[in-house]
Structures are given as C-alpha cells and as structure tokens.
Write a structure and sequence with these properties.
Shape: elongated
CATH class of the largest domain: Mainly Beta
Strand order of the largest sheet: 1-10-9-4-3-2
Order of helices and strands: HEEEEEEEEEE
Number of helices: 1
Distance between the termini: 80 Å
Strand content: 35-45%
CATH superfamily of the largest domain: Rieske [2Fe-2S] iron-sulphur domain
Helix content: 10-25%
CATH topology of the largest domain: Rieske Iron-sulfur Protein
Bound molecules: FE2/S2 (inorganic) cluster
CATH architecture of the largest domain: 3-layer Sandwich
Number of domains: 2
C-alpha cells in the first residue's frame, strides 16, 4: 500500500524547529533595531529635527527698545529682547521648574512668576531658586528682519 504523504522531491516540509528558529531571529532583529535607533538618534540629533533652526522673529522696526517678544522656534520657547544695543534672545523657560519667564523692560530683568526668580538682562540669576542662567541664542538682524538661531 502506498502512502499519500509523500512530498515532491526538492521541497522540504516546514518544521516546528525551523519556524521557531525563524521567529527567534526575527525577534532578535527587532530587539536590535529597538536598541540601536534611539542610540543613533541621540548621537545625530539633526536626524530627528533637533538641529539649528533660523527663525524669523519680527521686523526690526516693529520692536522698540525695551520691548520683548516670546516665540516658539524648533519646538522651544524663546524670548527676544531689544535694548539700546540691539537684539538678544534667551530661552523663555525658567531653569528652576520650567515656567515661562517675562521681560520687565523698565528694570531690564527677566522675571519668573512661579517662585519669584529674577534674571538680569544677560540671563544670569540674580535671585531665587534657579540653578543656572537662561540659555542664550544667537540673533541676527538682516535686511530689517530679526532672526534667531535655536540649536
Ligand atoms: S520655576 Fe521659575 S523660579 Fe521656580
């Protein structure tokens, strides 16, 4: 009596062990990618859009000396201040617990309303709990327009 289970020559029958080997290899590759991609994005932040961005802020004539403007550039809150010498830009995020600072033009100080911190016009801590100054950004005035470079 002949068996109906015979296979054509040249084709191998899938085995449970072969399937498990394939599944383990697939899981290993997925795990390797899951561990490698975040490391690569940390090493090359520009790949995730964290590079420098030159953002147009305002027309230079639209901001009088003593005025400020808070904008968002590259996902960061930035405060632009104009004084007698030109424009300066700092992070608008307080280095204590992350509240938004405001510019007090008459005193030439940045104030944080959350815990009464005071930063001087260069972003240095004058009083309050912040552990570090406000990070500064580069500002350019080109053709009557103000640009800030947020890295
Ligand atoms: S968050 Fe600004 S002083 Fe606390």
């Amino acid at each position: 009596m002949s068996s109906d289970r015979s296979e054509p020559s040249g084709l191998s029958q899938p085995t449970r062990r072969g399937f498990l080997d394939w599944l383990i290899a697939l899981c290993s590759m997925a795990t390797g990618l899951a561990m490698t991609i975040p490391g690569a994005m940390y090493l090359w932040p520009a790949a995730r859009g964290g590079g420098s961005e030159l953002a147009e802020v305002v027309g230079a004539a639209d901001m009088a000396p003593g005025q400020s403007k808070t904008i968002q550039a590259a996902g960061k809150a930035v405060i632009i201040v104009r004084d007698r010498n030109g424009f300066r830009a700092y992070s608008a995020i307080c280095t204590h617990l992350g509240c938004l600072v405001t510019w007090e033009g008459a005193k030439e100080e940045f104030l944080c309303p959350c815990h009464a911190a005071v930063f001087d016009k260069r972003g240095q801590v004058v009083s309050g709990p912040p552990p570090s100054p406000l990070p500064a950004y580069d500002v350019k005035e080109v053709g009557g327009k103000v640009y800030v470079s947020v890295a």
